């Protein structure tokens, strides 16, 4: 009992001394995008990253997702079964498995899967995380309704849809059969007010259900509504980490 | 982590004093697809043909997991290798005439592969060939037409049907959509993706085209002048290429 309480309080994600440099060989450009970042996200926590353009927010999310290769430091993930793994150094094959089964990543743009229907795209994300096909399809239907993607669009390919529709489909896929850790990079950037609210509500439910969420939102209203903690980045460094009110106030002043 | 199905190590091929590929290595899990990307002449097709056994490697190991333990494909006799090619390892070539007899019917090409694996019952063979052609979207009424009367895309579909006829555990694809018109290539790519997704086959996909690799694989290696210069998750190779050559490839692909 004691044991399991203790372990459930351990963070799902623990980023330690994370550095990320980019070297563009042909033009000899070198950028230090993250300079030793520390942060944690617990189960049911929603940590929002804020900071100016170029501060390193997307870079941080991608280092966790491992579509960027961290230069040094650690990205500890406590997996569903309790096992710890350092995503910064883990074998690609292992990262591929963990990604598929435990992590959701929703970027600003849909990674278009041509010639596959909206319903399939969403359901497949659930199947990858271990849902049965029927179950995944049922959940996909619910998720698409929740983000107001009408039934008339389910059979078409997402590639031909509008940016806002794609974004909602992306979100439905990334949150289906909820991942253990959800990474969100401006997931409501191209949505109108009504759709934006629907998507934010879905994200809010997930955190309440115990998903660890690390996000970047363009608008601070969304941060206020959802974040349980806010981490401010400036030039690749964490400059504040605390309660949303406090950090937002600090940054505003 | 899932069990490995294919493990390639130190694979090297010299043609006289010309190096075609050197020290190529990677490991693939059962049911996984890995990509080999590089421009023409980078040694990627040579590496694939060494794995298939069509080209004799100068050195290296190609371990394939089979019931009863791993075997080194480079140490097989010719007879063993031919046997393996019937039901365990299939290769799909860019040029359908390498994988098919164009002067035989679509059904006949598939029947040939089935009979090699011991199928004897005529109607069972017909019905299996029909199922396979249906699966790759070749109209059943073309089953008894000579493959040479087929379009390029259709030939490639027949080649795929033949390659998976005996449910191989390892499928090697060498530029499977290169040379086809864009829309035809897209259809064939879709078909390959669905074959990879719906079967437990382990696959190695060779292509110079980053979009093909990104559609079919989750991990890939990058080859340049016979060497592996970088390995990674496919999206990482695109978004955060480390090696100067990969960076060049990516920026060229972005146009
Ligand atoms: N793939 C990349 N290659 C080279 N440099 C990169 C790459 N990705 C990010 N950078 C650089 O890293 C720094 C941080 O960028 P990042 O995209 O993380 O900022 P951000 O905080 O997400 O900004 P925004 O709010 O504009 O999205 C920038 O200087 C950027 O140019
Ligand atoms: Mg960003």
Could you give a short description of this structure?
The complex is a heterodimer of chains A (253) and B (255). With 253 residues, chain A is of the alpha/beta class.
Number of domains of chain B: 2
The CATH topology of the largest domain in chain B corresponds to Rossmann fold
CATH C-level label of the largest domain in chain B: Alpha Beta
| Structure annotation, total helices of chain A | 9
Structural class of chain B: alpha/beta
Instruction: Report the major sheet of chain B.
Output: 6 strands, mixed
CATH H level of the largest domain in chain B: which superfamily? P-loop containing nucleotide triphosphate hydrolases
How far apart are the first and last residues' alpha carbons of chain A, in Å?
45 Å
Radius of gyration of chain B: 18 Å
The beta-strand count of chain A equals 10
Provide the low-confidence segments of chain B as ranges.
none
Helix content percent band of chain B: 25-40%
Radius of gyration of chain A: 18 Å
Q: SSE order of chain B in H/E notation?
A: EEEHEEHEHHHHEHEHEEHH
Approximate helicity band of chain A: 25-40%
The CATH architecture of the largest domain in chain B can be given as: 3-Layer(aba) Sandwich
Low-pLDDT sequence parts of chain A: 1-7
Q: Which secondary structure elements does this structure contain, and how are they paired or packed?
A:
The complex is a heterodimer of chains A (253) and B (255).
Chain A: H1 2-9, E1 13-24, E2 29-41, E3 46-50, H2 57-65, E4 72-78, E5 84-86, H3 92-102, E6 103-106, H4 118-128, H5 133-146, H6 163-175, E7 181-185, H7 193-208, E8 212-216, H8 220-226, E9 229-234, E10 237-242, H9 244-252
Parallel strand pairs in A: 3-8, 3-9, 6-7, 7-8
Antiparallel strand pairs in A: 1-2, 1-4, 4-5, 9-10
Helix pairs in contact in A: 4-5, 4-6, 5-6
Chain B: E1 4-15, E2 18-29, E3 33-37, H1 44-52, E4 59-66, E5 69-72, H2 78-87, E6 89-92, H3 96-99, H4 106-116, H5 122-135, H6 152-163, E7 170-174, H7 182-198, E8 202-207, H8 210-216, E9 219-224, E10 227-233, H9 234-239, H10 244-254
Parallel strand pairs in B: 3-8, 3-9, 6-7, 7-8
Antiparallel strand pairs in B: 1-2, 1-4, 4-5, 9-10
Helix pairs in contact in B: 4-5, 4-6, 5-6, 6-7
The complex binds adenosine-5'-triphosphate and magnesium ion.
Magnesium ion is lined by residues 57-58 of chain A.
């Amino acid at each position: 009992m004691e044991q399991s309480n203790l372990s459930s309080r351990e963070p799902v994600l623990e980023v330690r001394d994370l550095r990320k440099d980019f070297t563009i060989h042909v033009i000899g450009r070198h950028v230090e995008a993250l300079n030793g970042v520390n942060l944690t996200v617990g189960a049911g926590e929603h940590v929002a990253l804020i900071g100016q353009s170029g501060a390193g927010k997307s870079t941080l999310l991608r280092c966790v997702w491992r579509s960027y290769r961290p230069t040094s430091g650690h990205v500890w993930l406590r997996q569903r079964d309790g096992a710890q793994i350092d995503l910064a150094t883990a074998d690609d094959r292992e990262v591929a498995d963990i990604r598929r089964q435990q992590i959701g990543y929703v970027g600003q743009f849909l990674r278009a899967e041509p010639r596959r229907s909206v319903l399939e795209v969403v359901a497949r994300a659930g199947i990858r995380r271990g849902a049965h096909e029927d179950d995944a399809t049922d959940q996909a239907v619910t998720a698409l309704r929740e983000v107001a993607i009408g039934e008339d669009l389910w059979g078409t390919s997402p590639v031909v849809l509008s940016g806002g529709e794609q974004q909602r489909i992306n979100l439905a896929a990334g949150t289906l059969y909820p991942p253990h850790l959800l990474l969100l990079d401006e997931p409501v950037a191209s949505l109108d007010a009504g759709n934006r609210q629907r998507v934010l509500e879905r994200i809010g439910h997930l955190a309440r259900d115990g998903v660890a969420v690390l996000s970047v939102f363009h608008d601070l209203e969304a941060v206020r509504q959802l974040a349980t903690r806010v981490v401010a980045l400036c030039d690749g460094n964490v400059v504040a980490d605390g309660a949303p009110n406090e950090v937002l106030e600090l940054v505003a002043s | 982590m899932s069990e490995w199905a294919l493990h390639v190590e130190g694979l090297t091929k010299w043609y006289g004093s010309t190096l075609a590929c050197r020290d190529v290595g990677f490991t693939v899990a059962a049911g996984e697809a890995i990509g080999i990307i590089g421009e023409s002449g980078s040694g990627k097709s040579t590496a694939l043909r060494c794995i298939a056994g069509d080209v004799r490697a100068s050195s290296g190991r190609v371990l394939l997991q089979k019931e009863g333990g791993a075997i080194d494909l480079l140490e097989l006799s010719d007879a063993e290798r031919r046997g393996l090619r019937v039901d365990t390892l299939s290769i799909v070539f860019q040029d359908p005439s390498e994988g098919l007899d164009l002067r035989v019917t679509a059904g006949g090409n598939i029947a040939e592969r089935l009979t090699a694996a011991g199928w004897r019952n005529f109607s069972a063979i017909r019905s299996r060939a029909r199922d396979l052609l249906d699966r790759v979207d070749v109209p059943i009424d073309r089953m008894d037409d000579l493959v040479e009367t087929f379009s390029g895309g259709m030939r490639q579909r027949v080649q795929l049907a033949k390659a998976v006829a005996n449910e191989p555990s390892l499928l090697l694809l060498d530029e499977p959509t290169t040379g086809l018109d864009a829309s035809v290539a897209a259809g064939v790519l879709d078909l390959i993706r669905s074959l990879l997704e719906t079967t437990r086959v382990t696959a190695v996909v060779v292509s110079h085209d980053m979009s093909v690799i990104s559609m079919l694989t989750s991990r890939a290696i990058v080859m340049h002048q016979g060497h592996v210069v970088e390995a990674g998750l496919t999206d990482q190779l695109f978004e955060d290429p480390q090696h100067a050559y990969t960076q060049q490839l990516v920026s060229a692909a972005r146009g």
